[in-house]
Structure formats: C-alpha cells, structure tokens
Write a structure and sequence with these properties.
The protein is α+β, with helices and mostly antiparallel strands. It is built from 14 helices and ten strands. A hairpin with a 5-residue loop joins strand 6 and strand 7. Helix 3 packs across helix 13. The longest helix is centred in the C-terminal third of the chain and has 18 residues. Bound molecules: protoporphyrin IX containing FE (HEM).
Length: 487
C-alpha cells in the first residue's frame, strides 16, 4: 500500500498522533499541541442533527432503465426512449425511531429515490404504503409527536398514539396497513414502494394527466410476524441495513419495476373520491398499472455519512414533464423538506456530492456557510444584468392549472370528505387472507393493550367504533381480544 503523510486539516505534515505534547514525561499537556485540539474539536462536531423523521436509514446507488414507452403522457427526458438509463440514489428508512432505532420496528418504511436527470434531479420521496395517516399538512407535526416520545416519561406512548388515531379517523386506511404484517417488512428489498401522492405528467403537446407512481419489488413481498419482528429487535437492530449491504456486496442486485397509474382530468372530476386525497388509493381495476422501467440498486456508498446521512430529498424536486398536484399534503411537503435541510445541512446542501446535479446549474444564489464551490466566481450575482448569458427558457413553462375555487377559506375536510371507512373495509375484506385478518386483529390488540390512564376506556371505545365501521368482524375480533364491550 502506498504510504501517505499524516497532516493537519490545513495540510501541515505532522509528526505524532498518539502522544500529546507534554512538559516532561508525566505532563501536563501543552496548549500548543494544535493537532490535539483540532482533533478533539472536530470530533465534538461529528454529529449533525438527525432527520426529524426517518432518522434511521440506509442507501445505495443504482440505475433506472426505461422498458416501456410513456411519451404519450410525459415529455420528461428520463423517459424519452426505451433502453435509456439514468443514475439514481435511493434511501430507505424507518419513520418514527431515532438514528439508533431498530430496523424491524412496526412503522412505515421510507422509500426515497433521487434520479439524476439532464433536466435536474427528480426526487420521488415515497413510502412503502400507497396512502398516509393524514390528508392535511397542518396535522403532520401533531401526528409525529404522538409517534415519538411522551414529553414527561420520554417513553413511546400507546395512549398518545391511539388518542390521535381515534380522533382522526382519516388515519384508518394507513393504520390497517401499518397494523398488518406489512407494518414489519422482512427487509427493504422485500417491499413495494409508492410515490403515494397524486402527481401530474405533461406531454409534448402540453396535455396533462394525473399519475400515481408504484415500485414493485422483484424480490417478492416478505414480512415478519409480530413475534419475529420483536425477536429480531433483540438479535440485530440493523438487520435491514445489513441485508441490503450484504446483497449488493454479493452482487445480488435488488430490482423494482416502476409502474404508473394514469387518470385524465375528465375522470378526475367524476371519481367517487377526491383524487388528490392522500388517504385514498385509485383502484387498480379502474386505473390499471402501466409498466415504465426497472430500478436496480448496485453500489453501496463507500462512506455512509458523506452519501446517506447527507442526502437531501425533496418532493419539490420535479423535472420538466412531471408536476405537482393540488394534494394538500404534497403542497405542505414542498416547503418542509428544503427548510429542514437548510437547518440540518446548511444553505449550500445542494452542493454536497450526493445531492449535486451532475448537469448545469445556473442560479444567482451566493455565499452562505460552507460554500465550497466557485460561488459564481466574478460573474454577476443579480439578474437581469447586461453581462452574462443566463436565460429563463419559456419552453419549460408548465400548463396553467385551473383551480376548483378562488375563495380562500379553512374548508373542513370532514364535512366534504368523510368516507374514512370504505377503502379500508375493501382492503380488509377483498385483499386480506384469514391469516392476515387474524394477525391484524392480534397486532392491534397487542398495541392497544398499552393504552393507560383515565381516558383509557374513552379512547378504546372511540377507536373500536371506527374499526367496527370498517368491518364488524374486525371490530368484534379486537373488542374480544381486549375483553372490552363497545358502548
Ligand atoms: C405534511 C406532511 C409531511 C411533512 C411536513 C414531512 C416532513 C418531513 C421532513 C421534515 C423530513 C426530513 C427531511 C430531511 O431532513 O432531509 C422528512 C423525511 C421523509 N419523509 Fe416526510 N413529511 C410529510 C409526509 C410524508 C409522506 C406523505 C411521505 C411518503 C409518501 C413522506 C416520506 C418521507 C421520506 C421517505 C423521508 C426520508 C427521506 C430521506 O431518506 O432522506 N413524508 N419528511
């Protein structure tokens, strides 16, 4: 191995890294041992704030290859021809736990992919579930507080969780998925992913359709039972991380098929549910999956902190041909992620290698902490100006969007949109096997048994009413397991 000289961070070759500079054999240590201070001070700053959610995760690089033509829906360059390949970075995560938490925890799994396209980075920041707990972004921080730790005991609290769920029946659809064995996937390789929100696509003729994105695992779905997941917590906290690293290092590269569902605007206006409601799916019978391409993960980053910890995904990152939708939660997320990343990584986080667009970036943004690039050099830092040739290209303008109403108000979604029960009921009756139904009820009973305090009966009663409205068989099975009479 070629030897290299030990240096300080400023590049001064240094003579000693094991023994401090002392006055005499027994000390004391001298203040002028700069290498010692530099090392200790840098060490003290090794930790950055963990992600406020999705703190524990793992990532890999890979490629996306187009296998089917969807140019009738989108002009996005990454889908421009069959066989075209685009590099990507994926990060999988657990939502509620801290960075040192267990991979086999009952929780949704994050499924975020950054595609490095010629028109900028496209981030699809999804989960392993097609729906979510809330349909208004105002509820997100409240919901997450109930999944984290009790302010007094600093313990996870089934009381807080079920109090929130029982007062927010819009959570039922996601809750049924979470409480089934799909809430404890065997590994990140063995689960599907979903963009979850409704997005839009725009083709060359400037025609817009609404779309949902799905990633179908090529490894097959595999879940832990509650018992297996609990015992894995004791055996290996990092099992899902290890599983992904081991598979890729053995060249057993995991794949997912990217598929989309498409809804025309005309159909959206007649759809029985709000097509922009994140707590609802679009039934596959009416909106069949259309195959687009294959995602393969084939490289584990050499340095976890550099690429995985510093990765910054944002639903706001779309590219020409892919757009947002009126989904309220998506709209809230457009603001939240870059804001979190400016706090977590600093204003220049887009310059970190894993986040950096490998194609041209021309902005008038300048300065800020940790500016490590040319910072625009001597070029003008304002526009318009008479000196440079940066132009705004009108070809990239999105088709204007007509809105339902121009009257701004706090519309009560529970007055206009209160069917929280039909879709979870369909999932329970039409998709789940008898074994799935039994495990679902058992998992819910096990979790609800943790509810305590003087509101216990009120919370249980309220939640049991919701479960019974999904399906009386489910409500009865849980009531029986809890030995509770619904009032
Ligand atoms: C209003 C709703 C939501 C808000 C305000 C929100 C906010 C956040 C924030 C602040 C982060 C940390 C970002 C960072 O530090 O880099 C995050 C991470 C994440 N969120 Fe959300 N979130 C919301 C809903 C959702 C939904 C609906 C999904 C999935 C469909 C989702 C998937 C993710 C994923 C996968 C990550 C981790 C990304 C990574 O691997 O770095 N979130 N979220």
């Amino acid at each position: 191995m070629k030897k290299s000289k030990l240096t300080t961070a400023s590049g001064r070759p240094y003579c000693e890294y094991e023994n401090s500079l002392t006055a005499g054999i027994r000390g004391p240590v001298l203040l002028q041992d700069y290498f010692l201070h530099e090392d200790m001070a840098h060490f003290n700053r090794e930790r950055i704030p963990e992600r406020v959610v999705h703190a524990k995760g793992t990532g890999a690089f890979g490629t996306f290859t187009v296998t089917h033509d969807i140019r009738m829906y989108t002009k996005a360059k990454l889908f421009s021809e069959i066989g075209k390949q685009t590099s990507l970075f994926a990060r999988f995560s657990i939502v509620g736990g801290e960075k040192g938490g267990a991979d086999s925890e009952r929780d949704p799994r994050g499924f975020a992919i950054k595609f490095y396209t010629e028109d900028g980075n496209w981030d699809l920041v999804g989960n392993n579930t097609p729906v979510f707990f809330i349909k208004d972004p105002k509820k997100f921080s409240h919901f997450i507080h109930t999944q984290k730790r009790d302010p007094k005991t600093n313990c996870k609290s089934p009381t807080m969780m079920w109090d929130f769920f029982s007062l927010n029946p819009e959570s039922l659809h996601q809750l049924i998925i979470l409480m089934s064995d799909r809430g404890t996937p065997f590994s990140y390789r063995h689960m599907d992913g979903f963009g979850s929100h409704t997005f839009s696509m725009l083709n060359k003729k400037n025609e817009r359709v609404w779309v949902k994105f799905h990633y179908k695992t090529g490894q097959g779905i595999k879940n832990f039972s509650r018992k297996e997941a609990n015992s894995m917590k004791g055996a290996d906290l990092d099992q899902a991380q290890r599983d992904l690293v081991d598979a890729i290092e053995k060249k057993d590269f995991p794949i997912w098929k990217l598929k989309i569902q498409v809804m025309t605007d005309a159909k959206a206006k007649k759809f029985h549910w709000n097509p922009f409601d994140l707590t609802k799916v679009w039934p596959h019978r009416e909106f069949p999956l259309i195959e687009v391409g294959t995602i393969e993960l084939n490289k584990i980053p050499e340095n976890y902190f550099r690429d995985v910890e510093q990765a910054a995904f944002a639903p706001a990152h779309v590219v020409d041909g892919i757009g947002y939708s009126p989904d309220k939660v998506l709209q809230g997320r457009l603001l939240s992620y870059p804001d979190a990343q400016r706090y977590r990584l600093g204003a220049n986080y887009e310059q970190i290698p894993v986040n950096k667009c490998p194609y041209a970036v021309n902005t008038y943004q300048r300065d800020g902490l940790m500016q490590t690039e040319e910072n625009g050099g001597a070029k003008p830092n304002y526009g318009p100006n008479s000196f440079d040739a940066i132009v705004a290209d009108g070809d990239y303008k999105e088709l204007p969007l007509s809105l339902d109403s121009l009257t701004a108000d706090f519309y009560d979604r529970n007055k206009t949109d209160r069917d929280h029960y039909t879709q979870p009921g369909n999932l329970y009756r039409d998709v789940m096997t008898s074994a799935d139904k039994k495990n679902l009820a058992d998992n819910i009973v096990s979790s609800m048994q943790g509810i305590s305090g003087d509101k216990k009966n009120e919370i249980i009663n309220r939640q049991l009413c919701h479960f019974s409205r999904i399906d009386s068989q489910l409500g009865n099975a849980i009531a029986k397991g809890l030995q509770f009479d619904i009032r």
